[in-house]
TrEMBL record:
Region named Disordered: 50-223
GO MF annotations, alphabetized: chromatin binding; DNA replication origin binding; DNA-directed DNA polymerase activity; nucleotide binding; single-stranded DNA binding; zinc ion binding
Stored PANTHER family: DNA POLYMERASE ALPHA CATALYTIC SUBUNIT
Keywords: DNA replication, DNA-binding, DNA-directed DNA polymerase, Metal-binding, Nucleotidyltransferase, Nucleus, Transferase, Zinc, Zinc-finger
SMART domains per UniProt: POLBc
CDD domains to which the protein is assigned, alphabetical: DNA_polB_alpha_exo, POLBc_alpha
Pfam families membership: DNA_pol_alpha_N, DNA_pol_B, DNA_pol_B_exo1, zf-DNA_Pol
Domain DNA-directed DNA polymerase family B multifunctional intervals: 824-1271
Protein name: DNA polymerase
Keyword Zinc-finger appears in the UniProt entry: yes
Length: 1499
């Protein structure tokens, strides 16, 4: 360009404001924009290329491709994030030694190893709720305007609070001395605390003030972190110092037990070490905070150990003066609102409970929590004078045929009970081989007899093939009485085989030519031990000749070994010197908080709280809040803590421990568990989602000695997905409040901790939305209050869990149940009811020398769960087996629907099925069962009742013993001198006895039980149906009306309105019923003043209590089902209250209309809280296993929860709310895609809206209609109009609502008496005397049937078979003709027109009688009546059915004697009826007519 042109251009530019204002950016971008994942990929590729700038001259300059955001600071030089307060000094040295060796190997003149792709540390955004529409981050949700305002407010407040701080320059650390601190989790100074601070690590003037240290950018975390500073105290030792300690062994006392080390990971093979017991720290356990502080406190670890080397100080707890205890009543805090926004009536707030728990705790009492070191327990202090050991066993573990008992022993030196483990060796398998009578070759029985030598020789060959080297055999006499038809019943000769568990197991079902069965192949060593030694659950054991173990297999204080199981025996009940009481237990309640890392799709631990009660007497009724406990809380950050949190952790009334990383949290939790050594772990949903997440984190982060969570040392770490991970907790009892055992003790809808706190503790618990958990850990907040609240919520949950467990007496009740059954306490705690029943029978049959059936393998079982029913394990059915029940259950009478306003007496049989078993002596050993064929016949075969001279069986004797013991205990409860503690124990004992006795029938009908017996179960239920039927017949004979009956009770209408008169009638009826039986007893269970009967198992009544108060009892109605929301239940309850009020119908209807009108307005105006719209539904299986998952609302919600990282599985109860769709429209039905979790609606900025019309229709109107169907004056359209719904949609064309909403029983389930109530009887005429009589059939007591035929009632002459056949056919033809006449009747009010004419509109009335009638015409004699009439005629001559119905009754022999001689006559008459039945269309379904369109076209 020429100079002149350049100057001209410059002048022009100046005239226009300068060149800078005219500059335009180029189209090409100066840098590339990439996502986080793309950036990590680029860095990883760069690292794969190794050092792209070589350190050729060894001048110290090298670049490996890593972005140096940390100013060259080595990660290994940062402070140890795995450290935690209270960590054993030797553990810390070992970990640092391993890291030092790793660095030494890397720098030992080797070329720099190829670096793997870096794994970025988790950032705060990785835990935020993912939002699909967010473009800035994959994990952080797009903030709305309100969130932006909140952020700016907190930002400005933090800037203002520190605006006057002076920034000072800090000198750079010396490169020769590496910094000992890395990124500190604490954020005492936030990034915005200094206005003059620069962002990207440029140095400024700074002194040693921590609060003003400059922040730097951390590439691994993607956030601002504190710049590393040099420690003033801690100096990393040189490599030479470490080399001197390479081969160190932790110092132990000479008399201490050397512990067998756990299997070390491959990367720790050079650092194997032996473990000594943890020494207590000098500092109090309550002030456990940051690892840095702890390291500076403990400068010389050797000096500390020398101080603690002598025997630990024994601190005697001062007795609590109960008279001076001040009861602090918690008050509801107004400063905190629970998550659900609603407070229960009369409920305390969680914060008040938390404050009350903090008041009795002082720093001085923390010294009492110091535990003695493991080696302080000496063998001579626990063994008796004769060398035996007295141990109260709690749990067991099986390993390679060795049973390890864990329990408590008394340490006489300290006066406390400590944990102990006893390994019981020498347990042998016991096999019972059943010899054949004749040799079987290739499945065919021969004539060769089988001798003892033949059986011995063949079994010897089998054991050789199996690899069994040592074994012994002998012939014994044993009995068999169970369901295997191929085994000889009664006492016979068996070959007993014994060999050790160290030998291979013989396969189950092994047979041979000389023997047919081998029992006991899969019997566990624990089962053999408790049966042979007669150990009935947790109790005191006397163990003779124990040997102190030289190698430890557990984490118990002391371990012993015995070589002979016969030396282990329970103390005799007559031994006065034996210990009787349960020793004090250490109970720890664990509460964990987790979060989902969305980037890695993993669940991580954030907070762990343990509250421990030491020396807890489980038989003491004192509530846990009045007992001394120890609280330990460990918290770790996501990136950094909010400013001031660590200081709060030290100064608050309830201190908590802060750690840097999750691994340190896990190690600290394990150390806490090891320090307190709890016997019982209490949690909620602990064995489900929480424990599995904990195990995965322990495994992935390689926590130190992870097996300390249980009581047994383990080498491998195998996490099972089949729900058997509780085995890793063996040695500690686990009381999970969400287990099946607790669900049987607690009546609840969801069994959530929040619900149980409200119902049982009357405390309002505040829940935390899992997707909002990350917001509590926001380090940019100016105050730690929000995170402190999170910690307190976790802490108070630990107390709630223990309080609920104590309220329902979970631990003592399960102990009593276990003592009755003789099984394992942990199995009872976690819902093993079937196992309890099995062990009761195993103990008794073993005592009587019976060979018991083997337990079916686990794989042959199938888990069957219905959405709303309990779980049941049933044996897998063979292919093609039908799903129909193999025998009939209890009898349920068809209810006489309507509202009854006279006194209804509920007469109930006490423990019906156990009483039947005793009354009729039903047992394996007494009842002769017929051999069932394999033809697939489903007809139930009822065995005969044993004769009266048969000796009492095992089942009746067990039940009688339990009943008598319960009667004795209830007698003790009447003692007025009994203390409250004694009364509580008596009540627990009688509950356990009752539950055990009532569950004995269950083992007969439970297909998964080894003692399953369908014939015995069928006989028991058959007698129950018979007894109920006879009871109803007795009531009707007394002119009493039975309006309903169900299994073991009848509802008798007294027809009186006077309560004393009703009681008199009930007592008279009770006396007449009880006179019929020896052991069966009926009693007055309740008197209902008014009852509304709707259907089977669905009724509501006003019950009169003993004190005269009225109480509403509801069973089976919609308001009792969890899939109806609270607003639905409240509406139904209010309507039901009006129906049962006793007022006139007009007033009741008017009040119902007014109530529904107000409710409809409240719902549509948004006056009902969100929680009242929540619907609960239980998952019957895993959500992904549903074939129709798209049509199930709760399954869709569960799948969404699972996609967000939540753990959802079968049996979980899923909450959801039906919402409008995106267009703002709802639907009458529950469309699955419109169902959302309540948390989705609670979140700030949620645009979801509740579908009110759905709730008004499906959740309110429909249940109300079912309640009002028997109330005159209520119309469907009118009720809908009251709720604000369109009445035209609900207009009924019929005269009443009840026609549309009738409930009917399947015809196949209707009894003959109900089916044939309208049938016309068969009239026969005698040829001899010309007289007519009614023939009632075989079941009539005054029957006309004689062994030679049918006789005349007047002249006793025998009618000719041909005459009877002709008369029968004539009457059948008369009914057929009546049907084809086609007479119709109108059901219109005031019409009743009867005609054979039909309108062109079908069923519309012609108006012949009443003009303009809108009624419907129906056949006067329809096809159903004709079909039932034909069936009735056939039933009169059905001999087989008559015999089957009479089986077990007093008339059985009489009816059988009449049927057999008349078989030909009855067969002829049945053929007459079958000729017409075969033509009846109701007997067939034309499948081709239904599905013919699906046939393929034939070419």
């Amino acid at each position: 360009m020429a100079p002149a042109k350049g100057l001209a251009a410059l002048r022009e530019a100046r005239a226009k404001g300068g060149r800078l204002g005219q500059w335009k950016p180029s189209e090409s971008e100066l840098y590339d924009e990439v996502t986080d994942d793309q950036y990590r990929s680029i860095v990883g590729d760069r690292l794969d290329a190794d050092d792209f700038i070589e350190d050729d001259d060894h001048g110290g300059y090298v670049d490996n491709g890593m972005d140096d955001w940390d100013n060259g600071r080595d990660e290994d030089e940062s402070e140890d994030e795995d450290a935690f307060e209270g960590e054993d000094e030797e553990f810390r040295k070992a970990r640092l030694l391993k890291k030092q060796k790793a660095r030494a190997r890397a720098n030992a003149g080797k070329p720099l190893a190829k670096t793997n792709k870096p794994k970025a540390k988790s950032a705060f955004s990785d835990y935020a709720r993912p939002v699909a529409s967010s473009s800035s981050s994959t994990y952080r949700p797009a903030p709305n305007a309100m969130q932006e305002d909140d952020f700016m407010a907190s930002l400005l407040s933090s800037v203002t609070s520190t605006a006057n701080d002076t920034a000072a320059r800090k000198r750079k650390s010396s490169p020769d001395i590496p910094s000992s601190e890395g990124l500190h989790p604490s954020s005492d100074s936030s990034f915005f605390s200094s206005s003059g601070r620069k962002r990207y690590g440029i140095e400024e003037d700074d002194e040693d003030d921590d609060h003003n240290s400059p922040s730097i950018w951390d590439a691994k975390r993607g956030v601002m972190g504190k710049k590393p500073r040099m420690s003033d105290i801690t100096v990393v030792p040189s490599h030479q110092d470490y080399d001197q300690e390479n081969d160190f062994i932790m110092d132990v006392d000479e008399e201490e037990i050397m512990v067998k080390p756990e299997l070390i990971d491959e990367d720790e093979e050079d650092d194997e070490m032996q473990i000594r017991k943890i020494k207590p720290l000098a500092a109090t356990t309550a002030n456990l905070n940051g690892a840095t502080t702890a390291r500076r406190k403990v400068i010389n670890s050797n000096s500390i150990k020398n101080v603690l080397k002598p025997d630990p100080v024994k601190v005697k707890a001062e007795p609590i003066d109960e008279d001076n205890i001040e009861i602090v009543k918690p008050r509801l805090s107004s400063t905190s609102t629970p998550r659900n926004g609603k407070v229960l009536n009369g409920a305390s707030h969680w914060s008040a409970i938390q404050e009350s728990l903090l008041q009795p705790q002082t720093k001085g009492s923390e010294l009492e929590e110091v535990k003695a070191s493991f080696s302080s327990v000496k063998a001579e202090n626990v063994l008796e004078e004769d060398g035996s050991l007295s141990m109260f066993w709690l749990d067991h573990f099986e390993q390679d045929g060795v049973v390890l008992f864990v329990g408590k022993v008394l340490d006489r030196q300290s006066g406390k009970h400590v944990s102990a483990c006893v390994s019981i060796n020498g347990i042998e398998r016991n096999l019972f081989v059943k010899p054949r009578a004749k040799r079987v070759v290739q499945g065919q029985e021969t004539d060769d007899d089988v001798s003892r030598t033949d059986v011995f020789t063949e079994f010897d060959s089998i054991r050789r093939k199996a690899g069994i080297e040592e074994w012994a055999a002998s012939y014994v006499q044993r009995k068999y009485a169970f369901e295997d038809k191929s085994v000889e019943k009664g006492e016979s000769e068996w070959m007993k085989v014994a060999y050790g568990f160290d030998q291979p197991e013989i396969p189950m079902g092994t047979t041979g030519q000389t023997f047919s069965h081998v029992f006991g192949t899969n019997t566990t060593p624990f089962e053999l031990l408790v049966l042979k030694r007669k150990i009935m659950g947790p109790c005191w054991l006397k163990i003779e000749n124990p040997t102190l173990s030289t190698k430890s297999a557990s984490w118990c204080k002391i371990e012993f070994t015995v070589s002979d199981p016969k030396t282990v025996n329970p103390f005799s009940e007559t031994d006065n010197a034996a210990p009787k009481d349960t020793p004090p237990l250490t109970i720890m309640s664990i509460s964990l908080r987790t979060i989902v890392n969305h980037r890695e799709n993993k669940t991580e631990l954030l907070c762990a709280t343990t509250r421990t009660w030491e020396g807890c007497n489980i038989e003491d009724p004192t509530p846990p809040d009045q007992l001394r406990s120890s609280l330990n809380t460990i918290i770790r950050p996501i990136e950094k803590f909010p400013p001031g949190l660590e200081q709060r952790g030290k100064t608050d009334k309830s201190p908590f421990q802060t750690v840097k990383a999750e691994r340190a949290l896990l190690n600290s939790l394990l150390a806490t568990i090891q320090r307190f050594d709890p016997d019982v772990l209490v949690g909620h949903n602990f064995l489900g989602n929480t424990f599995e997440a904990l195990l995965y984190r322990l495994k992935e982060l390689k926590a130190d000695h992870w097996s300390r969570i249980g009581r047994f040392r383990r080498k491998g770490f195998n996490i099972s997905k089949g729900g058997s991970n509780h085995r890793l907790l063996a040695g500690r009892l686990v009381a999970d409040l969400s287990s099946d055992a607790v669900k049987g003790m607690i009546s609840s809808t969801t069994w959530s901790l929040t619900e149980m706190c409200g119902t049982h503790l009357k405390i309002q618990r505040e829940d935390v939305d899992p997707e909002d958990t990350h917001s509590y850990f926001d380090h940019t907040l100016s105050s730690p209050d929000r995170l402190v609240k999170f910690i307190r919520l976790c802490e108070v949950d630990a107390f709630f869990q223990m309080a609920i467990a104590a309220r329902v007496q979970m631990v003592p009740l399960t102990k009593q149940l276990t003592n009755l059954a003789g099984n394992s306490w942990n199995l009872t705690l976690n819902g093993g009811r079937a196992v309890r029943n099995e062990f009761i029978l195993l103990h008794e049959f073993h005592r009587l020398k019976y060979v018991c059936p083997d337990k079916a393998p686990f794989k042959s079982k199938k888990h069957v769960v219905n959405d709303e029913e309990d779980t049941e394990d049933i044996a897998t059915k063979p292919i093609g087996a039908r799903g129909k029940a193999k025998y009939s259950g209890g009898l349920v009478f068809e209810p006489k629907r309507g509202l009854w306003d006279t006194y209804i007496m509920v007469m109930d049989f006490n423990s019906l099925y156990p009483s039947i078993i005793q009354e009729y002596n039903i047992d394996f050993t007494t009842v002769e069962r017929e051999v069932e064929d394999d033809s697939g016949e489903t007809e139930e075969k009822i065995p005969d009742v044993p004769a009266s001279d048969v000796s009492q069986g095992v089942l009746p004797r067990i039940i009688a013993t339990l009943v008598n013991r319960r009667r004795q205990v209830k007698g003790l409860m009447k003692n007025k001198s009994a203390t409250p503690a004694q009364l509580l124990q008596y009540d627990i004992r009688q509950q356990a006895l009752k539950l055990t006795a009532n569950s004995m029938y269950g083992c007969l009908g439970f297909a998964g039980s080894r003692f399953s017996s369908r014939p015995l179960a069928a006989l028991t239920t058959f007698k129950g149906r018979e007894i109920l039927t006879h009871t109803r017949e007795l009531a009707e004979s007394l002119q009493l009306d039975v309006v309903y009956g169900d299994t073991d009770s009848v509802f008798v209408n007294s027809n009186v309105t006077s309560l004393p008169e009703a009681h008199r009638i009930a007592n008279d009826f009770k006396k007449l019923v009880n006179e019929r039986y020896k052991l069966l007893e009926i009693d007055l269970d309740a008197i209902f003043e008014r009852i509304l009967l709707l259907n089977k198992k669905k009724y509501a009544a006003v019950k009169i209590e003993d004190n005269g108060e009225r109480k509403t009892e509801v069973k089976g109605l919609d308001m009792k089902r969890r899939e109806f929301s609270k607003v639905s239940k409240d509406a139904s309850s209010a309507v039901l209250k009006e129906i049962l009020s006793g007022e006139s119908t007009e007033i009741v209807v008017e009040k119902i209309h007014e109530l529904l009108t107000n409710l409809g307005e409240a719902v549509k105006n948004g006056l009902i809280p969100l929680e009242d719209f929540i619907i609960f539904k239980r998952l019957g299986k895993n959500p992904e296993d549903y074939p129709d998952k798209k049509s199930q609302p709760h399954v869709q919600v569960a799948l969404r929860m699972k996609s967000k990282g939540a753990s959802v599985r079968a049996h979980d109860v899923i909450p959801y709310i039906m919402c409008l769709d995106e267009s703002g429209k709802g639907g009458k039905t529950a469309q699955a895609e419109r169902a959302f979790h309540p948390d989705d609606l609670r979140r700030q900025g949620s645009e979801l809206k509740i579908d009110y019309d759905f709730y008004l229709d499906t959740q309110i109107l429909q249940p109300v209609l079912r309640l009002c169907e028997t109330i005159e004056g209520t119309e469907r359209a009118r009720l809908a109009e009251c709720l604000g719904l369109d009445p035209s949609r609900y207009a009924s064309s019929g005269p009443s609502v009840s026609d549309e909403k009738q409930f009917f029983t399947f015809e196949s389930q209707i009894s003959d008496k109900e089916r044939f109530k309208d049938a016309e009887p068969l009239q026969l005429r005698c040829v001899s005397c010309e007289s007519a009589f009614t023939f009632q059939g075989l079941m009539d007591e005054s029957t006309n049937i004689q062994p030679v035929g049918i006789s005349c009632s007047a002249c006793q002459a025998i009618l000719h078979p041909a005459s009877v056949s002709v008369q029968l056919e004539n009457q059948i033809r008369a009914h057929v003709s009546r049907y084809y006449l086609g007479w119709t009747v109108c059901d219109g009010e005031g019409c009743g027109a009867r005609t054979r004419m039909m309108s062109v509109y079908g069923k519309r009335c012609l108006g012949l009688v009443k003009e303009g009638c809108k009624g419907t015409v129906r056949l006067e004699y329809n096809d159903s009546k004709l079909y039932n009439q034909l069936l009735y005629y056939r039933s009169l001559f059905d001999g087989e059915k008559a015999i089957s119905n009479a089986r077990g009754s007093q008339r059985f022999e009489e009816i059988r004697a009449l049927v057999l001689p008349n078989t030909a006559l009855f067969g002829q008459l049945v053929q007459v009826t079958d000729k017409y039945l075969d033509k009846n269309g109701r007997r067939f379904v034309d499948m081709k007519g239904l599905f013919g369109f699906m046939e393929r076209i034939k070419i």
